[in-house]
Design brief:
Layout: H1 3-14, E1 16-17, H2 25-31, E2 36-39, H3 47-64, E3 68-71, H4 75-85, H5 93-97, H6 111-127, E4 132-135, H7 141-155, H8 160-167, H9 177-187, H10 192-204, H11 215-238, H12 242-260, E5 268-271, H13 274-277, H14 293-301, E6 305-319, E7 328-332, H15 340-346, E8 352-355, E9 367-371, H16 382-385, E10 387-391, H17 392-395, E11 398-405, E12 417-418
Parallel strand pairs: 2-5, 2-6, 3-4, 3-5, 6-11, 7-12
Antiparallel strand pairs: 1-8, 6-7, 8-11, 9-10
Length: about 425
């Protein structure tokens, strides 16, 4: 029997077909026992990934008492949505979403996420819950500085001028991360000392912060973003693994800080790309010296972590052909022959999922190409760089395959170009 024939047969024997969200109940039962449920995505622009992820999350919140959702998004913009769902902020939901204004805006400002946030707001009101929605990414250096000044004006006015003075170090770079990265990395013109001085002052005055509406947490995470974003941008210009590792390490630290603020044992759902949530040790990332959120959490928390990967055989996706470029509805071509997604389709052209366990893990832990699509995507050449060598059952605890997918619907981006 040829190796691909055997793989297809194993997929048919160990996968479960699903046609509705209710068919995913077995995943809820198994994942619900964990403290960290990591829900991935193979792209940042696929409607089905976002919808399925939202439906699983709803069940985990309602049936398994999960405490908050953390996403691959900026803290300041997500905290605005968090304030909305918890009743700290008045206004309409689209007003809260308007703070997702950094490219690629469609990653979180889309109809699929908006539907989930409407549900979460209603759930919190109906059940008197405080289930949160937080961003744990590292990119928002300038936005976090702005937010710290805004918060200090309310809680500790005497610290405003010293903070502004320290932040003047960043002014020559006109909020352009790439300019700061080059200057700090190669000319020694960084602002590390200024950032550290502000952070020490903030920690020394932490007792002054009002505990209501998560004011202290807001200052704390924005301070962490400042520290790690400055490190990230310095490392970015030098290339190598450091910038990636700083970013994913930051996301884990941010998660831990959020959990520490909860009065009881918190359980969280994390929404990020497969590349962050699938264990890096099961891919070629390890050879490049890269770690990720999935690996770091597994190393720290073991079986308390449950990771779910997502993939598709074909369809459409929202992306751009270059960084900062025009948003397009792009085709996702049939998966490359021999890849994980190709075999899943060959095993039956319908949606399916796997629960990897001691009985079947060995069957799916040989190295195979597994598709990954980012916000920049060129479908014509995806076969050259969009497939990650992966031991799938070591990378995830569960895998969800949607055979044919479609692009999500952005909220604020002008009508996406049709291809």
């Amino acid at each position: 029997m040829r190796i691909n024939d055997k793989r297809i047969k194993d997929i048919q024997n160990h996968s479960v077909r699903f046609d509705t969200y209710e068919d995913l109940s077995e995943i809820i039962e198994v994942a619900g026992e964990a403290d960290y449920v990591l829900l991935g995505e193979a792209t940042h622009g696929t409607s089905e990934f976002y919808k399925i992820r939202a439906e699983i999350t709803k069940k985990l919140i309602v049936e398994k008492d999960f405490s908050f959702v953390a996403i691959e998004g900026d803290w300041p913009s997500c905290f605005t949505v968090n304030e909305y769902v918890k009743g700290y902020r008045d206004g309409e939901v689209k007003e809260a979403f308007s703070h997702f204004n950094r490219w690629p805006t469609w990653m979180w400002a889309n109809e699929e996420v908006l539907d989930f946030i409407n549900w979460l707001k209603q759930h919190n009101e109906r059940t008197h819950s405080q289930v949160g929605f937080y961003g744990i990414d590292v990119y928002s250096l300038w936005e976090s500085m702005d937010e710290i000044i805004f918060q200090l004006e309310k809680v500790s006015p005497s610290l405003v001028e010293p903070a502004k003075k320290a932040f003047e170090c960043f002014e020559p770079f006109n909020r352009k991360a790439e300019d700061y990265a080059v200057s700090a990395a190669f000319y020694g013109e960084g602002c590390t000392e200024e950032v550290l001085n502000v952070l020490v002052t903030l920690q020394q005055n932490k007792f002054k912060y009002d505990g209501s509406n998560e004011q202290g947490l807001n200052i704390d995470i924005n301070s962490l973003v400042m520290l790690n974003a400055e490190r990230y941008y310095r490392a970015m210009a030098k290339r190598g693994p450091d910038d990636w590792n700083i970013r994913d390490g930051h996301m884990v630290t941010a998660l831990e800080k959020i959990i520490a603020t909860h009065p009881k044992k918190a359980k969280c759902v994390v929404w990020e790309h497969n590349t962050h949530l699938g264990d890096a040790r099961a891919t070629d990332m390890a050879e490049e010296g890269l770690v990720n959120v999935g690996q770091l959490l597994r190393e720290k928390h073991g079986n308390s972590v449950y990771s779910v990967g997502f993939g598709t055989h074909r369809g459409t996706v929202i992306a751009a052909r270059e960084w900062g470029g025009t948003v397009e509805v792009l085709p996702v071509p049939n998966a490359r022959m021999g890849s994980w997604e190709y075999l899943l389709h060959e095993a039956g052209p319908f949606n399916k999922y796997f629960l990897f366990d001691d009985h079947n893990r060995e069957l799916f832990n040989d190295v195979i190409g597994h598709r990954a699509i980012g916000v920049v995507y060129n479908p014509e050449v995806e076969h050259l760089g969009n497939y990650v060598p992966t031991r799938v059952s070591d990378r995830y605890d569960c895998f969800i395959h949607v055979d044919e997918t479609r692009a999500l619907t952005p909220l604020f981006t002008k009508q996406a170009v049709k291809i």
